[in-house]
Predict the 3D structure of the following.
Amino acid sequence: RRLLQSEKYVDALPEVISLYRLYRDLDGTAYKQLKLYLSEIYAFLGKWYLSRSHLAQLLEMPLLVSGHGNRMQLLFNLGIVEKELARYGPAMQYLSEAGELARNIGQEGEYQRIMAHLGHAHMLVRGFVKAGELLNSAHRWAKEQHDEELLLQTSLFLASYEMQHTRLDSAMNYLSKGKSFVNLLDHSLEKLNYIYYLVSFHLEANDLDKAGDIVGFWEEQCRGIAKFENLALWLSGKVAMKKSKLELAEPKLNEAFERAQRYKLPHLEFLVVRDLAALAKEQGNAENLSTYIKMAHLAFEKLLDAVGDPILRQQLEESREYDMLF
């Protein structure tokens, strides 16, 4: 646990696997705790399906400690993992159940954290009305309770929400709040997460010099952390493309696409291949453009299949954001 608390996940993995094999046949508390550790480590390494597998198995086992709190935390963790995998239907189902349990056992802080992630999930499938309600409600509660960690999370989600409505002044206001909480909490992973939203903002504002400076620093800082490596490659390639550095953009976007496939991230895969099509258009390469348009259609179908809910699928399919543009 000491290695996990200090975020030394790579060092912790062989130790946890060794102990897991030792306790595997005993099916006791230690074994279940080790499954929790493995789910945490695999999530850090970007192996979301392995993380999901361990959490789903734990959900079917007697709890580590009696009571609803443990089930709530498992459901919450599963909801976040499913969200990363673009399985937004199951994600919302797990998060809704976790939120109900949190309310029932009087854990209002956990309830608000769960609702923030539920709001984010709605935003990712373009359910903006529900997303706005949930995110603003969680943000208000966090302000009233002076909950810095939740304020950081909701500030970043709301910054993204405002960017998608092209309200850039409001988005920057939320990002400024987020930065103050990043500095206050001094948590390395939260800092990397904040930088993702900051780069996205400067891209949206077409401030390409700032975006380029920040994304270069970000790439250095997130090495070895799969989630942010994937995002940094994509946004770095996108910045280079917008700055007309097409020869620099192409290998970054290609690597981001390969990694999105390897880590089974259909939403990122679609976003990257859409940018590869835009790059081919900028290059005047009609053959590549045609290829990437076909790949974009296939990636979008893969994303729709992953969603796992017919209503959410239709909502995403009909969204203007996901018109094929080409």
